[in-house]
Amino acid sequence: MLDETKVGRPPVELVGGEDAVLTALRRLSALEDRGVTAFEVAEALGTDSGRVRAELGSLLRKALVRCEGLVGDPGVACWRPVF
Predict the structure, then answer these.
(1) From 2, 4, 29, 33, which residue has the greatest number of CB atoms within 10 Å?
(2) At what angle do helices 49-63 and 17-33 cross, to 10 degrees?
(3) Domain assignment of residue 68, yes or no
């Protein structure tokens, strides 16, 4: 078990794992390549584009930052937000 006091905060658990996150990012990239805007995605979801951007930003911060070799536990890997 990872000692949370060494990390400063508990690691973030990704629902669906790394593959699911990468698949979602590829799909978003494909939409962007076709010229679909955040506003259009927001309309389809029934929300505002600012919220869509905030949710995507949150996902990216949680999913794309991987830390390894935490103090006192070399080789331990976890996912954590940095912003």
Answers:
(1) 2
(2) 140
(3) yes
The helix/strand/coil state of 75 is strand
Asked if the structure places residue 2 within a domain, the reply is no
Query: Residue 48 sits in which domain range?
Result: 13-79
Q: Which residues contact 62 (CB under 8 A, 6 or more apart)?
A: 12, 14, 79, 80, 81
CA distance 78 to 68: 7
How far is the C-alpha of 16 from the C-alpha of 14, rounded, in Å?
A: 6
> Which of 64, 30, 36 is CA-nearest to residue 49?
36
CA-to-CA dists, residue 69 to 6, 7, 45, 62, 78, angstroms: 11, 11, 39, 18, 9
Residue 7 lies in a domain: no
At residue 47, does pLDDT exceed 60?
Answer: yes
Q: CB of 45 within 8 A of CB of 52?
A: yes
